[in-house]
């Protein structure tokens, strides 16, 4: 593999060692479980929460004489993902056997793709928290089987094996070493997850292990040659990815600064201790005795079929972000926060229909999403539906409530007290937009100050004085915008 | 209870009453900062562990029945020119990164902590406090919470934005020519620049010794007064504050304002202001009723003199670094400090002489008035990166000129509350100016105008 730098050293990303600055080089292999009802080569069901060994076919258990049959839908999902990553789709690809011995791998080999993966090079644009972007090149995406699960801690003397997961389809998505900090690595996984969820090819559930990353970490002097890398296996949260990288980079720098060298190896991240430790020395490809699986024919895809899949792709995150900005006038930040999750974007678009979209975006991002995050809920679980956010914004637009009161109403909505209009009614939160009362005050003040009313005709800002007078008359309960409108009408200014 | 967005005194009351704990308040605050600071860039440092430890201690004290301070459990943050024990005082610069950490808290920081307030972080600013935009070359721009494409104002931009965004209910800033008042106006919060010499500057990295003030930001006049009261008191460590009298503002906040003689500053202070700004000023005047418009003499000279003293004294402070490592300065700061370094001594002497004259003239005007009103800035917050603004028919540079209405007042050390006017659109502020040592009067009037619905911190979701 040629490791081409796509980025010059960025001084802000360097970390200081005892003997000078170091640059972290990161590449990720992400394993994404294909969203599919059945496994890659068998008809057994895929699902979470089934009892041990309830979702195992004879093929998955590697009974003698069983032959794999490829799941067309899983192939379609891989192609869809490749197209979403703007990657090359290989019309000809092949499955290989990767041989190793482990109790949860009954076949004694994993069916994977080695030399000829189904998807070749692509790239994705990743946003950092501050809104700036960088590009991560994708080296390849291939299909492979997942292994079963060995459970060592159920019994002091025995190890149990659960084959429910054995044979489940995985997409391994391999990036180029294009990330330079733990923040960037996390941002990349976030973006990748967003794309997969938009495409519907992986549910992205990291807690269940349906999306997990192997992180390749090496360090080097800025602009120097690439160092030896260590691979940290199976990290399954953004925070762990970041912690593992920070620890591992520090560990490597300390070794190098003390004159040692890095051994290429596979390491494990221990989240309770926040450290990585050696698992096994890194295998080379030849250790696995890869060879083409004689039970499977090469996979040949029809161009028309690929084109049909392409035509059916949904709007992807970058396009959605651009459209949210263009169509609704949202800031880049708000568009990003909404587009990061397709459910959020849908929620927003449902609420924004016919409403002041920027206001809807503010209420969705600043208030609702913040509360959901505190409560640990996703937007699909929001106790406040989109139509109620729309309803709240309408009340503000119509001047029925001020934005300050709206906050109070929002709290009641969150507490499950129902629709905003009903809450405002029940709690008497309507602000004085009783235009009758305001108009009466306005008329009295204009009548008492004809000279000032006249002055407004030549100096429009002088209308502010009337606003202040009306506020005084109404004890501050009047809506300033409503007062302004009425005054303008009465005084005949625009 | 939900603590985000709750005022300082209300929070303290809830903590003292056991409705919530300091620890819960701090966890909520840290979570808010974690979730929302990245988009705004208010904080340059968050002291999570120290804040948690202080909160736990406070809760333990509460359980033990010990008396709790007036600001018990109230999170606050400070412009990063205030000394915080164990932390390097950056003053927005790259140059000071190599300085040793501060050995003790700045006096005002300590006094807030003594009342139970909990320091959660340090805030972004213009380098060495020289600027009105908080677009810092080393630490990035702070964004205006009400429109993230716009500046927060400066130099205490991080402080104003953090309060406006409801990340903290209280923050500290400093004001040499308007650095509390300008960002308060642009972010729609209350700020107090007290009388010169009222609050101790010990442990605040200086900019212009004869013009520097420190002061608080808050979302209500009441919270502003509470923070101000907590920080008052003599301090031998700051020579100009050694004799400062103590005059608490909070107890008399609700007393009537009917007898106050109020004037609106015209002439220089309205010339060139945008329609938004003038309309807001008129709204305040209208609500007060029967106010007179008056002009101060020679305001243009006052501003020019303040400008010269600022540049020369500031340059004097940084002379060694300007000579040795000019490239480590923010370009915008360096050029103006350089200019100051070349200022003829005669100009400064003349500026100081004029200052005494101007101070005496304004004191005479205050014989007829208790409070003077003026706009805070010439316009609402400009866009990030915007270099010029139209002013009096001329495209004028943004950075030095947002303080056109603030500079002549700090020049003679007058106390000013910078207050947000309640209206639609981007935030607009007014300056409520009192005679020297009469902060309490300006705060009282602010409080009354707030109750009357004329002044109000801008609601956070408006953008």
Question: Any descriptors?
Answer:
heterodimer; A: 494 residues; alpha+beta; Arc Repressor Mutant, subunit A; nine-stranded mixed β-sheet; three-stranded antiparallel β-sheet; 15 helices; 18% strand; B: 463 residues; Amidase signature (AS) enzymes; two-stranded antiparallel ribbon; 17 strands; 16% strand; globular
Describe this structure in words.
The complex is a heterodimer of chains A (494) and B (463). Chain A folds into three domains: 11-309, no CATH class; 315-427, no CATH class; 435-491, Arc Repressor Mutant, subunit A (Orthogonal Bundle), CATH 1.10.10. Chain A is elongated. Chain A has helices at residues 72-84, 182-199, 238-257, 303-311, 317-328, 332-339, 342-352, 357-375, 386-397, 403-414, 420-427, 435-448, 450-458, 463-473, 480-491; strands at 15-16, 21-33, 92-93, 96-99, 109-112, 122-127, 133-145, 149-151, 160-162, 169-175, 211-220, 230-235, 265-270, 275-281, 291-292, 299-300. Chain A is α+β, with helices and mostly antiparallel strands. The model of chain A has no long low-confidence stretch (mean pLDDT 90). Chain A has 15 helices and 16 strands. By secondary structure, chain B is α+β, with helices and mostly antiparallel strands. Chain B has a single domain, classed as Amidase signature (AS) enzymes. Chain B is built from 14 helices and 17 strands. Chain B has helices spanning 8-16, 22-40, 48-63, 107-114, 157-164, 181-187, 221-231, 275-288, 299-324, 331-341, 345-365, 398-401, 407-410, 439-451, and strands at 43-46, 75-79, 118-123, 135-136, 140-141, 143-144, 147-151, 170-175, 190-193, 213-218, 262-265, 292-294, 371-375, 388-391, 394-397, 416-420, 429-434. In chain B, strands 1-3-2-8-10-9-16-17-13-11-12 form an eleven-stranded mixed beta sheet, with helices on both faces. Chain B has a two-stranded antiparallel ribbon with strand order 4-5. Chain B has a two-stranded antiparallel sheet with strand order 6-7. In chain B, helix 5 (157-164) packs parallel to helix 6, helix 9 crosses helix 10 (331-341) and helix 9 runs antiparallel to helix 11. Chain B starts with 7 loop residues before the first helix and ends in a 12-residue tail after the last helix. The model of chain B has no long low-confidence stretch (mean pLDDT 94). The interface between A and B is large, with 39 and 39 residues.
